[in-house]
Specification:
The protein is α+β, with helices and mostly antiparallel strands. Helices cover 43% and strands 13% of the residues. A hairpin with a 2-residue loop joins strand 5 (191-193) and strand 6 (196-198). Helix 13 runs antiparallel to helix 14 (324-337).
Length: 387
């Protein structure tokens, strides 16, 4: 729509949404939304988010959740991933086009590219061969929690196949969908994001994989209840790796690094066993003390992958099943291994609170919020237990 002159990237979003609160909307442009630099709070991080995910919401209702909240920082100041911003982009598309977001996708992308296995997901729709999503409690698979797909909307409610996404990748190397000028804008390093940069919907990073110039990698990951995805492209060589997994938390980045290394004749590591699952299994067989006595041997062997998310996941498996002592030990392990992670301290604080140790709960929640100022749930819990 920008190509057609129907949208401008550098005007306030109130140009297209006159009812959007002007105090916030007059500061934000489409460029800010595209680059996750708007400062709009991420509604999927709100304390009440879990209460809304089972119910259908209109785009207007979603936007209402965050539109009147203060911005977290001045737009354009920094990168901060916000599903709110991408929901807002979908809402603007509907307002400007006069069509639903789903219709726009079908007419502009899926039909022209013959992506017959792709669409906007609806809970009630029966789709042949659609994969079910699963979560894991340690090594135990379980059905993923239900999420009404009106909630992620234009921030993540699509279904697709590897074959369809390959068609999309190939189209991005031609003028079929986007002009050369638009593609250049999409893959420009607009704003720093840690060691990388962010373009329009893509993470961008140069890396040395051959003896010549560093290669540009454009990629993006995604995760939702029961599913985990990653697409990684090296446009100059027309290489693309597409991963779609129906188990949340799968180590797709590690797989991607190894496959990329193989493609370019670089050294790579074979997959490793999960440290978290190994300790969990030993606890089940021999008890907590014996399992953690074995931990130094596991860590030094080089045979086990040490993954923050997996350790946290196993910890919550114990916590949710009433085994608080085991959960605390897992969360303490995560804090020791990843001392810079606010999420690790948040989990440990929750476990201490559940055990009745209010003093240590406060200490760890404070550390969590210090490391992650955007941890709104941590702030809320801390305020409640500090009274």
């Amino acid at each position: 729509m920008w190509q057609e002159g129907k949208l401008k990237l550098d005007v306030p979003i109130t140009t297209y949404l006159p009812s959007y609160p002007k105090e916030q909307g007059n500061q934000i442009t489409l460029h800010h939304l595209m680059t996750h630099s708007s400062g709009i709070p991420n509604f999927t991080s709100f304390p009440d988010y879990k209460k809304m995910i089972h119910n259908q919401h209109s785009p207007e209702a979603l936007v209402k959740i965050f539109s009147e909240l203060p911005l977290e920082f001045k737009p354009g100041e920094k990168f901060s991933y916000s599903n709110s911003g991408y929901v807002l982009l979908g809402f603007i598309i509907e307002k400007v086009s006069g069509k639903t977001y789903e219709q726009c996708l079908q007419e502009r992308i899926f039909t022209p590219l013959k992506m017959t296995g792709s669409g906007l997901d609806h809970y009630e729709a029966v789709i042949e061969k659609r994969a079910a999503g699963y979560d894991k409690n340690g090594s135990i698979l379980m059905n993923a929690e239900h999420l009404d797909m009106s909630i992620p909307f234009s921030a993540g409610a699509l279904y697709s196949t590897v074959e369809d996404l390959y068609l999309w990748d190939q189209a991005l190397q031609t003028d079929i969908l986007l002009s050369a000028k638009t593609r250049e804008l999409m893959f420009t390093k607009h704003i720093p994001n840690g060691p990388r940069y962010y373009g329009y919907g893509w993470g961008l990073q140069h890396t040395s994989l051959n003896a010549t110039d560093p290669l540009l990698i454009t990629e993006h990951s995604g995760g939702i209840q029961g599913f985990n995805t990653l697409i990684s492209r090296i446009p100059s060589d027309k290489n693309v790796a597409i991963y779609l997994c129906n188990v949340s938390g799968a180590p797709l980045s590690e797989m991607n690094y190894a496959i990329r290394a193989i493609l370019y004749d670089m050294p790579y590591d074979l997959p490793k066993k999960s440290l978290a699952l190994a300790v969990q299994e030993l606890i089940t067989k021999q008890g907590l003390a014996a399992a953690f006595a074995k931990l130094p041997e596991f860590k030094s062997s080089g045979l086990y992958a040490i993954n923050e998310g997996e350790i946290n996941e196993v910890g919550y498996g114990f916590l949710n099943s009433g085994k608080t002592a085991e959960a605390i030990e897992f969360f303490k392990l995560n804090v020791d291994l990843f001392p810079g992670s606010g999420n690790c301290y948040d989990s440990l604080g929750e476990a201490y609170l559940k055990s009745g140790n209010k003093e240590l709960a406060i200490k760890n929640y404070k550390k969590s919020v210090e490391l992650d100022p955007q941890n709104e749930n941590g702030k809320k819990v801390l305020a409640e237990i500090s009274k």
